């Protein structure tokens, strides 16, 4: 099967060295063209297809209409519970991010105001470094506990929904480390977002909640007989991922389309309605609690998602202003092209950084990853502080009012926008435009770029875009939970706002709405990075609550995707390939249409008989890198007898309770022996396994299997390279 691993080939003879490179290419170890060093993982497939056999038919015969209706009702209840729990996870992350961020900025802001007069700004920088390094250190420690919690988690969830089992991706420990780690990494001032990890968190909730049990909490078990198959688990993971998008952006329809477009390779009509219901439950759960906590108005839904773009409208004093016109579409197309180029550049740089980390950081002790995260945090903090102090411009505000705590307010603007204008290092009645962007949460900076009129100079926007582009590219991939949506939106919004300023200053288009160009710039850059179309269009429309933006956003995203696809893949697809995951794409390459089954199949199969001995099965598992083996019978009578007795189901070997062999123990032994080895150590590993002393019965069988599956001189490398 193309999804499963491939037989372990001989790497112990010198004659096999020339064939080692193409075989390791299949396993994700190297790449022929660029000589990449990639992880070689023992990935397994999930059983999404029903196995129609005699036991399954017996189960179907015992199911009547009453049981079927009860099963469907329980599934709807579980979908609703997944949405509610995902919304509560988002509430937890948002509450503590807001709490820690306000505490940090309040202390640093007071220190800056005092030290501006006394000349002790270095003390303010040390205070900011103390906060950021502490938070990032905690986030890195959580990733050490559960390494799969690093990053956004979207590539891993995409692989899981595609049918590839990524170890530990949907465990309880993962969601705990993910949720707590992302709030520390965001509060620590890193250029990351919390919206991407929300998708992973929702998927973990969807996978674990219907099971009513967890590997991390073995002693807590409930007798819940439903939803034990991978097929059911996949549907709930799809619903959880969609709920995560809905909670992050307040976009339930966009979440449903995201799960359909980016995630699930398996979909059915009934699942669509359940996923939408789950997304609605997540959105309104988060909205209900956030509105009640922040405004004290329980029951009023005023904050739909973690990220809200606000209301786009022209100033009442400017009668000629329009959100956008047909003439602007041409500019939007050009912005889409530039956004696609910038996104392709971002992906190329991040891919090179990721490969550098795999070669030079990951093989070293885990402490090195923590030190790298602290280095990124240190650099980011110093750049933000120095840029705000040195590169920011003190600009006069025509219509201002003091709001205390070093901020100025624009009359008539929303509270979120006015409260985030910073006066750092500037005299009275002026504000610092660079500090207004850097010394605020990223969501507040996005609102500034969308809705604040005339507050940023072109030089400030250019420097901010350049610094944010480079630092966010460096940050994505370090060992902390991190999202990419918000940094991409903020970077693109600065680009779009820069375009609007240039059009107003040098071309004379005074009546264009700057917020629209900032939104289109954000869409262009984000589309160039992630290469999403349908779902991202709907997410942005729902976030702006402005349906008239549908056409320009859709055109911009299409152009950005087409432009970026000329150069490389989207960021999530790149990281999937870097992990060596055997992901099946929607569309095959043209060369694959010319292949036949014989071109990709292994002719020398490793197979088992219905009554194979336990020792033989263990030997097969220890000498191969896959779990699926054909069960060969001599006649139909033996097959029927075999299907009625003990059987191999879902690649699991059913041992007797009295046996000293356990599946968990064998998995540990196998993971230690067949785990990812550098190519230089692969020869020694094979030598160990071949020279291991086994009982006579098993030694003969093992030798036969190795000779049958991997003849030394007959060229199994050709078959592996073809595959």
From TrEMBL:
What stretches pass through the bilayer? 76-97, 133-154, 236-259, 323-347, 367-391, 459-478, 515-541
Q: Transmembrane helix among the record's keywords?
A: yes
Q: Which UniProt keywords apply?
A: CBS domain, Chloride, Ion transport, Membrane, Repeat, Transmembrane, Transmembrane helix, Transport
User: What InterPro entries does the annotation carry?
Assistant: CBS_dom (IPR000644), CBS_dom_sf (IPR046342), Cl-channel/antiporter (IPR051280), Cl-channel_core (IPR014743), Cl_channel-6 (IPR002248), ClC (IPR001807)
GO MF annotation terms: voltage-gated chloride channel activity
Taking the first listed entry, what is the main subcellular location of this protein, grouped into a coarse class?
membrane
Q: Which Gene3D superfamilies match?
A: Clc chloride channel (1.10.3080.10)
Q: Where in the cell is it found?
A: Membrane
Q: Organism's domain of life?
A: Eukaryota
Pfam families, A to Z: Voltage_CLC
Which parts of the sequence belong to the CBS domain? 604-653
Q: What is this protein called?
A: Chloride voltage-gated channel 6
What species is given as this protein's source? Answer: Apteryx owenii
Q: Tell me the organism's taxonomic lineage.
A: Eukaryota, Metazoa, Chordata, Craniata, Vertebrata
